[in-house]
Amino acid sequence: MIFTVAIDGPAAAGKGTISRAVAAHFGFAHLDTGLLYRAVGAKGGDPVMAARALTEADLAREGLRTLEAGQAASRVAVIPEVRAALLDFQRRFARRAGGAVLDGRDIGTVICPEAEVKLYVTASAEVRAHRRWLEVGGDEARVLAEVKERDARDMGRADAPLKAASDAMVIDTSEMAADEAVATALAVVAARLGR
Ligand code: CDP
């Protein structure tokens, strides 16, 4: 069975939690595509070469979840040649046999416009920054500023900007607990699978 769940949305909206839960529930493979950009940003040197030569080991390195790694990721993510280098891998992953969940910024719009389910997960910048701050600590005002800066860069870039696909279902988790957001997503996928 080929079945793709595309989950897009801004920084720290809860895409990861929802993606992991959907993948575990339905036995689908999961790809956190943000990790690809984080790994390219963290490698240093020429980002286009880094994207073309990306390995499993690069994705496993430490420190990819920090605010700095997020900023570096969004800076390399504006480069069309970087995005192009990562495209085939993501497309193949999306259409692999057995079902796949991919979360990122452009999954429903560019990577897999034919996805069987498209979700756009969002929340207010303040709520998202608070959640990220609970994970990374430090100064909450700085976390909020970083989240806003990254959103602006991701939404404003020319190549594959962050936006909801016209046929995506929007889930605003500003006033939702994680389990409620997960239950909503599971129900959408189950309905599309006819279960
Ligand atoms: O976890 P969080 O939502 O904070 O970020 P992420 O999903 O790990 O993505 C990090 C950065 O990679 C984003 O800010 C984007 O600039 C970039 N990205 C992208 O351009 N396209 C994707 N499909 C995924 C991430």
Sheet/helix structural class: alpha/beta
Strand order of the largest sheet: 2-3-1-4-5
**How many domains comprise the coordinates?**
1
- What is the CATH level 1 assignment? Alpha Beta
CATH homologous superfamily identity: P-loop containing nucleotide triphosphate hydrolases
How far apart lie the N and C ends? 14 Å
Give the total of beta strands: 5
Which overall shape is indicated by the principal axes computed on the Cα atoms?
Answer: globular
Helix fraction bin: 55-70%
Bound molecule kinds, no repeats: cytidine-5'-diphosphate
Radius of gyration: 16 Å
User: What percentage of the residues does DSSP assign to strands (E)?
Assistant: 5-15%
Order of helices and strands: EHEHHHHHEHEHHEH
Shape-level CATH architecture: 3-Layer(aba) Sandwich
Low-confidence stretches: none
